[in-house]
TrEMBL record:
Keywords: DNA-binding, Transcription, Transcription regulation. It comes from Streptomyces hyaluromycini. PROSITE patterns: HTH_TETR_2. It comes from the Bacteria. InterPro entries: Homeodomain-like_sf, HTH-type_TetR-like_transc_reg, HTH_TetR, Tet_transcr_reg_TetR-rel_C_sf, TetR_C_40. This is TetR/AcrR family transcriptional regulator.
Length: 211
């Protein structure tokens, strides 16, 4: 899971561990059922921490579940970052993001379920996938790789298509995930102004970890 600066002393370490236990429990609930009506007592029991400590970390269940979604999306972004390290072409980064997302239906199903259920509200978040995608779009526009004029508007289109891919992967697991992701990524790149032949080639480049 995403990490921040290490706590300075034993008290801070324990406090951070307790908070993360609550977040982890909330993530599990979101991935399993999406039901945020679970009682604080039930969440505390799942987290294996005391009920009384909840309000030392969160003002409400809403704040906890928001933190759980942010935590999951940040982890998702970190996983993608690790896999695309060394890729400089903004178009290839967009394509790789789609293809890796499809792959994560098998490798990180909890993350994909949370992205499916909660991702739309976080398309323009300042944490997780959104700032990474916005950065790549801005670089692509500035370099002339992409022909669109507004990165924020482009992010809405790219993010919405990515969420459609996630929905398709979960609804139709029998489909070839990489083929579906490559096809959608190709459509997105063409929408961003990449020439058809170029978009097709970029989305079929070798990707580490995919057969």
């Amino acid at each position: 899971m995403p990490t921040s600066a290490p706590p300075k002393n034993r008290f801070e370490r324990r406090r951070a561990e307790t908070r993360q236990a609550f977040v982890r429990a909330a993530r599990q609930i979101l991935a399993e059922t999406g039901d945020t009506s679970a009682s604080i007592q039930a969440i505390a029991e799942r987290a294996d921490v005391g009920f009384g400590s909840f309000y030392n970390h969160f003002e409400s269940k809403t704040e906890l579940f928001d933190a759980a979604v942010t935590d999951a999306l940040e982890e998702f972004g970190q996983v993608i970052d690790e896999r695309v390290e060394g890729i400089d072409d903004p178009a290839e980064l967009v394509a790789a993001g789609f293809r890796l997302t499809a792959q994560m239906a098998d490798s990180h199903p909890e993350l994909l379920r949370i992205l499916h259920d909660r991702g739309l509200a976080h398309i323009h978040s300042d944490r997780g996938l959104a700032p990474r995608a916005l950065r790549d779009l801005e670089i692509g526009i500035a370099s002339g790789r992409f022909a669109c004029g507004n990165a924020t508007t482009a992010l809405s289109a790219v993010g919405g298509t990515l969420l459609s891919l996630v929905a398709l992967r979960l609804a139709r697991p029998e489909l070839d995930g990489d083929e579906v992701a490559s096809d959608l990524a190709e459509m997105v790149l063409r929408m961003l102004g990449v020439a058809p032949d170029d978009a097709h080639e970029v989305t079929r480049r070798p990707l580490p970890g995919l057969a």
